[in-house]
Amino acid sequence: MNKSNGNRLEAWPRCPDAAEYFTSLFRAFASHNPDVAQLADRLVEQAGVPMLTLVDHWVVPNTPSLTDELTTIGLRLQTSADGDEYWAHPAARLPRLRISNADDGVRLAIAVEDLRHFADCHDFPIRGQYGDPDSGYEEIRIPQPAGELAVIVRNGYSGFRPGRLTASDQRAILNARAAIRSRSRTGDESSVASKTAELMRSLSESVEMDRLVDEFFHVERDYYMARNSAARKQYERQQNLGIGWANHDHHTFRSARDGFRALVNLWLQVGFEPREKFYAGAEAGWGAQIFEHPVSRVILFCDVDMAPEEIDIEYSRHDLQPLPKLGTIGLWCGLHGSSICEAGLHHLEAEFDFARERSQLVAEGIGVMSPFTDLPMLKQAFTEAETWSVDPSRANRLYDRGLITLEQRDQFMERGAHGSHLEILQRWDGFKGFNKTGIDAIIQQTDARNVGAL
After folding, report:
1. What is the CATH number of the domain that holds 45?
2. With the C-alpha atoms ordered 53, 54, 57, 62, is the resulting torsion angle positive or negative?
3. Residue 145 belongs to domain spanning
4. Burial label, 376 (beta-carbon count in 10 A; 0-12, 13-18, 19+)
5. Phi, psi of 392 (to 5 degrees)
6. Were 249 and a residue from 133, 267, 308, 349 both cysteine, which residue would form a disulfide, CB within 3.0 to 4.6 Å?
């Protein structure tokens, strides 16, 4: 594994021992608590979502050998901003664990998007809620025969203490939410990204930036769903179980080359940290920068047409110069607008039991493309693309610049072009990376110039 970007890794490891520890912990907990086992069955049978993907953290009683066991499987003792200790694996996508010195059994905490909605869906009592509604941290605890099930909501907060919200705080959050939802998406990408960054800075005077980040991506998911029927249908199934998009894995933004620097700076200014870079090869003609937010669990995959020598550029400091032809990403942006603008997300990827989710989508009439990743630790596939109409002015502009042919222009104007997808994913062994070798094929397959993509 090569280190880059401070403590970030370019190549993420498989962590089977740590993953098996948490899987075994869940199996034992479910076997002693029938209601939890039944809830887990409903989640996967009705929405394709394994309950393990929703686990936020565990609280377990202390034992003489526990810390040695956790250290052996790669977990490290860390301290939250509030001063609370917890154990986490620094290189894996796995839950955190807290050790209790009280003999009060095991507590499993799962994360959802709306606490009251989840409780209503499952007839869980809301009495004794920890944390104010709509605060940074809300929690209810449901006693089980052996331990407790906790259901939590996080909003721009990564600690474990109940949130407090004054009337003034609530007004500020509601105002910020409305401002983000109504932000302007029109104009060139650089100006939209810069205006969005300025909006977020202005709102951060009354609402913490970490909270604004979570609010921003709630809005982005809503905007995306309005333009993608597969995502709406899947979200409806998940909302029927009260979890919302709590299983989201990453959000993919497509960018034109002349707007990429401004987009990158937007993410940096709101607190994202750069992770690994991707380059799919000269033939594919595109690359990506991945970002991760240290407080929220939002991960961004930012795609752009790219030349071979540009993989090592510091994108926040250097503009990407024009290329002689459009790649897949540039064409998509030319036809629909960039993701930060009118187009919205190219895809939202969420974690599922891959086989179950695929069969459930197909049964509902939603086409799923062949997996573009099928590895021991990662499996990924797109749903069939949503076809979007193309504004004639966009198609004509590309034609006038010599970037598409007359035939392509007429086809786009008449038949539209691929817009967005929902992406289904399953991870094993705590692997938190992505496939760097096979993703170029699916990008080329969804290029709007291919006959099958029209």
Report:
1. 3.10.180
2. negative
3. 3-154
4. exposed
5. -55, -35
6. 349
